[in-house]
Amino acid sequence: MRWRGDRQSSNVEDRSGSSGRPVGKIATGGGIGVFLIAIIVFFISGGDLNTVTDTLGGGITPATYETENVSSKEYTDQKEFAAVVFAHLEDYWDGEFAERNETYQNPKLVLFTDSVNSACGQASSQVGPFYCPADQNVYLDLSFADELTNKYGATGDYAMAYVIAHEVGHHVQNELGISKQLDKIRQRVSETEYNKYSVRLELQADYLAGCFSKYLAGQTYQGQPILEEGDIDEAITAANAIGDDTLQKEYQGYVVPDSFTHGTSQQRINWFKRGYKYGDLEHGDTFNEKNLDLASAA
Ligand SMILES: [Zn+2]
Predict the structure, then answer these.
(1) In a domain, 170, yes or no
(2) How far is the CA of 144 from the centre of ligand 1 (A)?
């Protein structure tokens, strides 16, 4: 992605507390799911992490972090990249809502290291990037970029752009009132039943990330296209790597479809591609049963 020198969002708050930061190095693997950790955090903090919507599925082995400072240059680069992606997301969603004669409230991007306090409770980096509807912030530990590369094999800057776009997709769902409807459903159905709704919510966030990518593919910076060769493939590789089935196979050796909260790798790829093809809200109804397993970009 072409981004150096481009406009950075002013809605970025850096709570990482330093110009450098610890880089995540996987020292040991536990086998406890991220989802379990999220639940523990929920009970400990008394917060409402249940309302958090994140990028990753369950069953992910948490990393144990060893502290090693990355150069401030690398940190600054990652931060600026995220701020530029966030600025493009503001432009895109502002425009989309304006076209529908609706107002759009920009979310904020909060950068943190290790753990963070949100209106949804305290969360560790191990839950991965997440969006908290209660304070309308996207929370991101920039070391997730290293994790994407080293742990999930999703290389390239656009993998991270996809992750940020997915989280902002959750904000869009919040703005559209979709998240609120799902909270009501959550109160009256079993966990297994709710997982099915969670999958639809997550796939829709992938779809919205695809819509944003289509928009970005049509934009230029200093006379050059913003998206570079391979960018879309980088997003697809990331979507594939963080599908529930792929993560469960990798980290627990078997797959439990009832426990899926984010969708299979194929579903995530399909919905991202579909968003990239249509780039509108109309084709993004993941809640319609017959749409769920659409063939790629159908
Ligand atoms: Zn998500």
Answers:
(1) yes
(2) 15
Residue 251: closest CA among 36, 66, 49, 39:
36
Is 235 contained in some domain? yes
Compute, in angstroms, the gap from residue 168 CA to the centroid of ligand 1: 9
Q: Which two tokens stand for residue 136?
A: 């309308």
Structural domain for 83, as ranges = 12-291
Cα–Cα distance measured from residue 292 to residue 287, given in angstroms and rounded to the nearest whole number: 7
The DSSP secondary-structure symbol of 290 reads G
Distance 62 CA to ligand 1 centre (A): 18
In a domain, 109, yes or no: yes
Our count of domains for the chain comes to 1
Model confidence pLDDT, tens digit, residues 214-267: 999 999 999 999 999 999 999 999 999 998 888 888 888 888 888 888 999 999
Residue 112 lies in a domain: yes
The predicted-structure confidence for 110-162, as pLDDT tens digits, reads as follows 999 999 999 999 988 888 899 999 999 999 999 999 989 998 899 999 999 99
Distance CA 138, CA 168 (A): 7
- Distance between CA atoms of residues 63 and 29, nearest Å: 6
